Amino acid sequence: MSSRRATWAAVGRLSVLLGLGWLLACPAHAQNRGQQALPRQATAAPVSTPAPLAPAKLEEALRLFLKADSVANQQNLQQGGSESQGLVLDQAVSKLGHDFYDQFYSTFEAPMGVADYNIIIIERPSRANSSLVAVSVNDSELLELPLPTRADQMEEVVAAAVEAARGFLLEALSNSRQLESGHRAPPERF
User: What is the spatial distance between Cα 129 and Cα 93, in angstroms, rounded to a whole number?
Assistant: First the structure.
């Protein structure tokens, strides 16, 4: 609660500072545009401007605001992970490739517990007028299939690609959990 209170105190101080800056800048802004600022007698109610803050207090208010903002960002990162938890990127060229990406993106749902992943839908030219679509997850190419032209075939290919991506992410999650618990040795590469 104290961090929340400090956040709102810093926000209040900053809003006062911004309001002060606006009040002080308005007459100068009007004069710079070739207009005269309204005299204080012409206003309906007298406006009392608070005394400007000392530079030390201004610096302290800004420091508190930045600290409170960084604490809030830290809490958000701990609760929900990073801002970009999973990316599905489109590197298709043709309309069919973009259609495949749209269907994949609307169908794909990350497994529970998987937060950081990168899926790239890549379209490559093939023989004649056909194309190949490749699905790459975390820099590992999972599958490469001919891009179908019929809608029912497209749904089947998208379903296969979604299942392959979900299976790869689940396996990677299982392997990382086993490595963390110490029940499995990392695979050796020669």
Answer: 13
Across the chain, mean pLDDT equals 74
All residue ranges of the chain with pLDDT < 50 are 1-4, 20, 22-25, 28-33, 37
DSSP 51-99: PPPPHHHHHHHHHHHHHHHHHHHHHHHHHH--S--EEEEEE--SHHHHH
Gyration radius of the chain's alpha carbons:
29
Per-domain residue ranges of the chain: 2-80, 86-181
pTM (two decimals): 0.53
What's the burial of 173, exposed, middle or buried (CB within 10 Å: 0-12/13-18/19+)?
A: middle
The architecture of the domain spanning 86-181 is 2-Layer Sandwich (3.30)
